[in-house]
């Protein structure tokens, strides 16, 4: 059975967006300080809590006293009702001495059969009766005293009974003056106390917030004084171990890194300017000679200087991209195949290069950038090697990372210089000549590329048995490996463009 759903009532119909009722927004203080906002918020919260607690207290007190009065009145009304049914009703009903209470028996035709002394000769005090099925009912009324004056509050209970004249109602009332007095007393005590308590809360919150924010203000004022030319200043660290102290330490660590970065940037700019000055000066000299004496122009020297400036500019651009956090596109790359291709395209160098690869060494890397690393390491080795350069690939047995090592038998690098040689524009004493020593950026670029790939590049003594007899230096590149390496000798491109090779373990070749 199918049918359409019943339509929604008109009052639930969707109103246009611009006609929907909007809830009132709480006031905001966008320009107020944290101290002011905290103080105002604390005062408002305490004020709401105090008003709610006071209201609840008054209600509990009043309700408790009213229940007690009602219970007393019902007990007396039931006793008088029983006396009325049994025919023992007296004309004057007695109440406890000194107690402000009411007693009255009224027939359904409003005749008063009996009453207490304070209601003698008066008309019926009330006319309500219990509802059908109930034996009693209670209400709060006000009755004026006989001697005149303001009406007094009573909790009046009506109980149905039967008299000799027919059905009747017994009204018994107990004074609520005690309840009103207690309520007024509580109000009188609380009304002056609430503002005083709110003022105390505001003062304490203002003082404690100011004390808590004092270190923050000190940090702000100190940071405001720090400029790019004065990064040596540090923010004060409070003695406490709270969030502000952690913020201070974090900010000081950030300033340390910022100062280190600015120092490196200044040094880099100064070194780059210094390195570019000489080839540019040489180019200017060649141009001036060519203008003055065209027949004396030496093309090869001019081209060499142009290539040198171009290479230096390319190195600076690559370093800038690496510093900017450029992430290379990575593929599964066979390091042995990369070494073979790199050695095949390089022109013969001064020193013979031996290749010793291990099967299946595959890393997640960018082919162009990893080829740049190998070129830089080989250029460095060609400048320093005496008679032998060895390139090896292997898999680290501990963590399975891919390892590429370039070893030369040149002068060993002192342990104190093994990190310094990776700094930009750094050349050791024996390679200070720019004709033989390069620009001093090759190793820095190689390490930055390794770091961008999640790997490391370190310098150290060569491994025994690599043909260097313990002399020279070995540059070791470690990269994250691919979990599943293609089989050595796989047909086709394989993963990441790996070419097929003969499955020989530890293949060795020379270039």
SSE layout:
Elements: H1 34-85, E1 92-93, E2 101-107, E3 112-116, E4 136-143, E5 152-163, E6 166-175, H2 177-225, H3 243-292, H4 299-323, E7 331-334, H5 335-345, E8 353-357, E9 362-365, H6 367-384, E10 389-395, E11 402-408, H7 434-437, H8 442-452, E12 456-460, E13 473-479, E14 507-510
Helix pairs in contact: 1-2, 3-4, 4-8, 6-8
Please tag this protein with its features.
alpha+beta, 43% helix, 8 helices, six-stranded mixed beta sheet, 14 strands, disordered C terminus, Heat Shock Protein 90, 511 residues, rod-shaped, Helix Hairpins
Describe this structure as you would to a colleague.
- This protein folds into three domains: about 30-225, no CATH class; about 245-320, Helix Hairpins, CATH 1.10.287; about 330-510, Histidine kinase-like ATPase, C-terminal domain (Heat Shock Protein 90), CATH 3.30.565.10.
- About 45% of the residues lie in helices and about 15% in strands.
- It contains eight helices and 14 strands.
- A hairpin with a 2-residue loop joins strand 5 and strand 6.
Task: Write a brief caption for the model.
With 511 residues, this protein is an alpha+beta fold. The chain is 43% helix and 17% strand. Strands 1-3-2-6-5-4 form a six-stranded mixed β-sheet. A six-stranded mixed β-sheet has the order 12-13-11-10-8-14. It has a two-stranded antiparallel sheet with strand order 7-9.
């Amino acid at each position: 059975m199918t049918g359409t759903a019943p339509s929604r009532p008109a009052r639930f119909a969707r109103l246009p967006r611009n006609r929907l009722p909007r809830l009132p927004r709480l006031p905001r203080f966008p320009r107020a300080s944290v101290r002011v906002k905290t103080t105002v918020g604390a005062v408002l919260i305490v004020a709401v809590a105090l008003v709610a607690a006071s209201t609840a207290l008054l209600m509990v007190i009043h309700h408790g006293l009213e229940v007690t009065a009602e219970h007393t009145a019902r007990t007396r009304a039931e006793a008088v009702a029983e006396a009325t049914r049994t025919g023992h009703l007296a004309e004057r009903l007695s109440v406890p001495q000194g107690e402000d209470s009411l007693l009255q028996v009224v027939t359904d035709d409003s005749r008063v059969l009996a009453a207490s002394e304070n209601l003698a000769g008066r008309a019926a005090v009330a006319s309500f009766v219990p509802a059908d099925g109930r034996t009693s009912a209670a209400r709060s009324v006000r009755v004026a005293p006989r001697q005149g004056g303001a009406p007094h509050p009573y909790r009046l209970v009506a109980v149905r009974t039967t008299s000799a004249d027919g059905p009747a109602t017994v009204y018994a009332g107990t004074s609520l003056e005690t309840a009103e007095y207690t309520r007024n007393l509580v109000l009188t005590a609380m009304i002056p106390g609430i503002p005083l308590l709110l003022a105390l809360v505001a003062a304490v919150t203002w003082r404690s917030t100011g004390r808590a924010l004092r270190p923050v203000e000190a940090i702000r004022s100190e940071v405001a004084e720090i400029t790019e030319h004065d990064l040596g200043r540090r923010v004060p660290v409070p003695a406490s171990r709270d969030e502000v102290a952690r913020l201070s330490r974090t900010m000081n660590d950030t300033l340390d890194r910022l100062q280190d970065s600015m120092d490196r940037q200044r040094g880099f700019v100064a070194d780059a300017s210094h390195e570019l000055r000489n080839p540019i000066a040489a180019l200017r000299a060649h141009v001036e000679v060519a203008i003055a004496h065209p027949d004396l122009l030496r093309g090869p020297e001019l081209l060499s200087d142009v290539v040198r400036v171009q290479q230096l500019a390319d190195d600076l651009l690559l370093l800038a991209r690496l510093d900017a956090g450029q992430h290379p596109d990575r593929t599964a790359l066979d390091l042995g195949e990369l070494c073979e291709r790199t050695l095949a395209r390089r022109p013969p160098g001064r020193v013979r290069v031996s290749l010793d690869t291990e099967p299946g060494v595959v890393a997640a890397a960018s082919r162009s950038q990893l080829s740049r690393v190998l070129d830089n390491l080989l250029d460095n080795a060609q400048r320093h090697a005496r008679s032998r350069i060895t390139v090896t690939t292997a898999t680290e047995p501990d963590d399975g990372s891919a390892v590429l090592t370039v070893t030369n038998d040149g002068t060993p690098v002192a342990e104190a210089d093994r990190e310094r040689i990776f700094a930009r524009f750094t050349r050791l004493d024996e390679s200070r000549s720019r004709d033989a020593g390069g620009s001093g950026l090759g190793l820095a670029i190689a390490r930055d590329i390794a770091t961008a790939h999640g790997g490391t590049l370190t310098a150290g003594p060569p491994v025994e048995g690599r043909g260097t007899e313990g002399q020279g230096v070995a540059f070791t590149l470690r990269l994250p490996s691919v979990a599943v390496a293609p089989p050595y000798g796989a047909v086709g491109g394989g993963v990441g463009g790996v070419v097929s090779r003969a499955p020989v373990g530890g293949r060795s070749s020379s270039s």
